Amino acid sequence: MKDPAFAAHRAAASALFTLFSLLAIALGLAEPAPLAAAASASLAGLWIATRSGVRGALASFASPLAMLLDQVLLMTAIAATGGARSPYALLIPAGVALAWTLEGEAAARFHAALSVLAVGGLAIFGAVSPLDPASRFPLAAMALGAPALLAAMEAASRARRESGVAGESRPVSAPAEPSAPTAAMPRPGGLRQAEAEILHDLRSPLSVIRVYADLIAEGARRGQLPNGEHLANLKREIELAESLVEGAGRTTPARESSGAAEPAEPVPSTGAPPPQDAAPASADLVEILGSLATAYRLSRAGNRRIEFIAERPQLPVGAEPVALQRAFRNVIENAIKYTADGGEIRIRAGAAGPHAFVVVKDTGIGMSAEERSRAFDYAFRGSGAVASGKPGKGLGLALTKQILEANGGRISLSSEAGFGSEVTILLPFQRGSRG
What we know:
Layout: H1 4-27, H2 32-49, H3 52-58, H4 62-80, H5 91-103, H6 105-124, H7 133-163, H8 194-221, H9 228-250, E1 283-284, H10 285-299, E2 305-310, E3 316-317, H11 321-337, E4 344-352, E5 355-362, H12 369-373, H13 383-388, H14 396-406, E6 410-415, E7 421-428
Parallel strand pairs: 2-4
Antiparallel strand pairs: 1-3, 4-5, 5-7, 6-7
Helix pairs in contact: 1-2, 1-4, 1-5, 1-8, 2-4, 4-6, 5-6, 5-7, 6-7, 8-9, 8-10, 10-11, 11-14
């Protein structure tokens, strides 16, 4: 009895757990033996669960039992690698997203309920103490992360069903909406795109995590010690994923004005400037863009050439680092996605008066004049993007514009159909600095 959705869920869950285990071993978060045993048990469970005879004998119990095994192994790894602060905690909401995507809403609900019980078990059996002030918030985040993500996904799904039209299914040839400044276009349906935005932002760091974990695993098979740069980059990607999950959890819908249009959802807190009483945020564009260029060469470039040119050794700007990573990833990923093999993506950063600039130029499919005028509209995709068959929801540039403007920046686009695109970003220098 073959069930492709069940098999895909098992393979994805086991692969993700194994990658995190390799990372934990490489970083020395716990003794290697128990983590290696847990990863081996996960792989063995994958092999057993996907045997036709076993799947047929267990019938409808196969999926719940497999998810129960996932939780047992995950909580064991969490207890061994720092408790509530373990990087394995990221796999709790990730498991809900996998269950929803591959096996449906009922499986996601079961996984979320099981996660809450499993985290409660950690506290009951003393692996994590809820009485420890330092563990209270991380423990609460672990317990509520899966139900919160599930609630957001259910709300988004319910809104789509009620509207009858998903954002990306809107025809490209549809009449333009009433003219208004692009940045002030309200997002359709309030929370309708909540699930899409969360997954959109998480997809990039998770794919890079997989690449670095594969590199570390390959080196281990050859008897080599983990590369220090790979470990540092891997740690940064995990921290980014954690920040995105925390920021998404703090995002709340805003009121829609009956007068001037306002965005229906604010930028997550990672994209907004800090409170006045907090230290001003700062980031170095050269460091961020250099690491991103390296990561994309390893993970997604294929036969495309990615070149990064910095006109200065440092370009410190007054913006939130995680927010900038989100914005730059959206722009660079668009350039890679819509540039054919053999093409080129060139990233250049420098200074222009009181601003630092970043220019991302590609040799991709480009846009027509009409499409350029709507490029920053929420959930808009040009005819070339749709015809390419590349997956997407038209969120990247709209979210990027919102993030940059929340940090005092600006973005513009120059493009011609068939001749590539050029995105220009301006950001104010950190106060007292000109790079």
